[in-house]
Amino acid sequence: MTAIFARKALLADGWHEQVRLQFDRGRITAIERGVIAGDAEYQAGIVIPGLANAHSHAFQRALAGHTESRSPKGKDNFWTWRNRMYALAGRVDASRMKAIARQAYIEMLCSGYTSVAEFHYLHNEPGEKRSGTAMLEAIVDSATESGIRLTYVPVLYERAGFEEPQPTAEQRRFASNVDEFLQHYSDAASFTGDTVTCGIGAHSLRAVTRESLDRIAAAANRDGVPMHIHIAEQRREVEQCLAVHDRRPVEWLLENYQLDSNWCLVHATHMDTEETQALARTGAVVCLCPSTEANLGDGLFRLQDWMQQGGHIAIGSDSHISINPFEELRWLEYGQRLITEQRNIAALSHQHTGRNLFESAAAGGALATGQDTGRLEKGAMADLVVLDDESPMLAGHGIDSILDALVFSGFTLPIDRVMVHGEWQVVNGRHRAAQAAGEEYVRVVRDLLRETEADR
Ligand SMILES: [Zn+2]
Prior knowledge:
By secondary structure, this protein is of the alpha/beta class. The chain has 14 helices and 17 strands.
């Protein structure tokens, strides 16, 4: 593969027609505008950058749709969902992890994600005491086999809560002390390569001590890798943080750390006005996961305030109740429309909401994954998505509204091909390994659910 031709392409400086893109060793090496196809090996309809999925717990893909029945007590919330998730996590060993993650990553590629940050805390295999690398290898192998670009984010999980210094029995799978954890982070470097890099993470303020967070943040700063943390997802976490620190979670983080664009704060759902303004000023990315946040009943992020302050956003499919970046963006906007009774909330700098959401998430996703992606220009990674310009879904849409159509009516996405690192991973809407991976996934999930149901 050396060159493709696109009738339309969304480049870093906007939409262009009759574009020739050339690649070498995984990067874009030349872009020509207003040219003929010439010797291009493939003629594409519409080319857009691939998006980063900046927050994934791959194993939770197996739980999607299995927690939607009302419990006898009728008080279902995030914390009752978490019990079901723990029951599943307790049965995911490395071989199951690989089958589930590979399926999730293939689904991501087919829907237009070309990279993923795997926020990984299932470090220990069931029954194992100390953290090994089997679970990490399962993640790296599934990313490599699917062809998605991976930012592996090992996550420290030390304790059950702000004032509960030990993990619960279910959390022991995730737990390590900070020395073991930093050793694991350092071991993970030997698994990196052209399409695999590392970040580092803390599960949440409630799950790590101040001293450990200092050391993780220092490691991220030293190595220049993205630093991820769940924050202010649930009101209970805000109340607990106020009780212990007399500060709200984001407020406390801002007071104690030098946040910058290397930090990725996942959710940040419950912020007040001062926190929203002060956090946006740091340049930190907020990773929003609207389909999961809606599914778990988390609450609504203050998107309008955030974007007015110039805050960076990324998107993630988190629990994988949905794997479709355009659906994440749709619900990000729809949540705001429903609560403000207005339209086109995220169209601050462009007249088109879909385009502004897409370009914001592409840029923020690149920051959150620490990858040179999310834009098509010379020197950037050759990670892109080809849309079928003959699709009925795009009928009558010119360059102004193609992304609006994808975000607001892309229920069946007109994705023809997907390229990562200069290689086609999806062709004619189909991933090359979908059949075998799907069959393996079905077998693994049936076994897992049979076992977890038997335990209930
Ligand atoms: Zn998460």
